[in-house]
Amino acid sequence: MHNFLAKKRITAFLFILVLVTLSVLNILQSFGPIKQTLASGDYDISETKGLIHQLDADINDHVFEKFGFVEAYGYLQSLMWKNEENNFEVVRDMEGKLHYTYFATGPTYTKDLSDRVAALGAHLDPQTKLTYVMTPDKYVRGYTTFPEGIPYNYNNETADGFLANLKQDGIDTLDLREGLLESGIPPEDLFFTTDHHWKIRTAFWAFGQLVNHMDGMYTKSLDPDHYFTDIHNYNVIPYEDIFIGSQGRKAGKYFAGADDFDLIYPKFKTNYSFYFKTGETEAALNGRFEDALLTTYPLNVEGATYDLTADKYFTYLYGNQGMVHVVNKDNPNGLKVMFIKDSLAVPMITFLSTVVSEIYVIDPRYYTEDIMDFASKTELDHVFVSISPQDLVEEFFPYGANN
Known about the structure:
alpha/beta, 13 strands, globular, eight-stranded mixed beta sheet, 12 helices, three-stranded antiparallel beta sheet, about 35% helix
C-alpha cells in the first residue's frame, strides 16, 4: 500500500512538473509579443475585443515547440488513417492533397458581392474595360474526390452562381476553371499538395489564357508571335521537397509531406520598375524581371520550415501587398491595367507584366483607401477583379456596397 501511494505521488509530481515547465517556457516564448501588443494597444472600450483577439493570437503563435506538437499530432492522425485535422479545418482528398473545407448545405448567396463588382464597373471611365477573372478552386471538378465523411464546401457552385450574376449584369468574365484539365498539366500537378494555391506552371498557363481572352477584346494582339506566352522562353528552376504551404503548416510534414516548387522567369531581356506599399511599409526596385519582381529569400531561408517568411508562393511580387505598381519599361505604349485580387492571382499577374505597359495591383485586405476612387482617378485601359471561389466573401469586396 505504501509503495502504491508513493508511485501516485511521484506520478502527480512529474505531471505537475511538466505542466509548470511548459507554462514557464510558453510565458518566456510569448512574453515579447504580448508586451509589444500591450504597448501598442488601443484601450478604448470599443477595441477591447480586438485587443483580446490579438493577445490570444500572440499566445497561440508562440507556443513552445508549436510545430513539434503539430507534427506529432499529424503523424498520429496518419497512423490512424484519418483524413482530417483540427475538426475538419484541413482535410485530405483521395489523391493525398490537403484542402480547407467546412460543413455546408449548399452554395453561398453572393448577389450582393456581384452587385459590388457591377457598381465598380459603373464607376469606371467609359473607355476602361472590366473583366472578372475566376481562378480555379483546389477542388477540381472531374478530378478531386473526398473520402466518405469529409465535408464539401460548395465553393465551385458558389462561384457558378456568382459568375451567372455578373453575366446577367453584362460584365465580361473569364472562368479559368474551364479547360484546366485540358491544359496539358497533369491534374495532380495543378495545385500544391500542402498549400491552397495553384502551382506556378498552372499560373503560367492561366497567363496564356488571359492573353488569349484579352486578344478578343482589342484590335492589337498582346502577344502576336506567341513568344511571351511560350514557356520555352522562360527559365524553370525546380526546387525539390522545399515547400510546406499554409495547409501543411496546420497539419505538419508527416501528414502530407512537402511540395516541389518551380521558379519561372524570362530568359529574354527585361527592364522593370516595381513599387509596393502596405501600411507604412514601402519599397521600390528596378531591374530585370527576376531582380525587380521576384524575391528569392523564401527559397534560401534555412531553419524556418513553417515560418511565413519561408512561404515560397511569396516569391512573386513579394507576396500580398496593399498596393503594387509594376512598369514594363520595354513596352511603354502597351496597355495599362489594374487588378483587384487575392493571392492566387499574383504569379499570373507577374507573367502578364511581360505583355503590358503598367500594372496596378490592389489587395482589398491590405489597401485601406478607396478602391473605386483609385480606379476612377488612374489612367487605365482595363480593370480586372480576380477573387478565387474560396474568397467570395465580403472582406474581398470592400467597395460598391448599397448602404
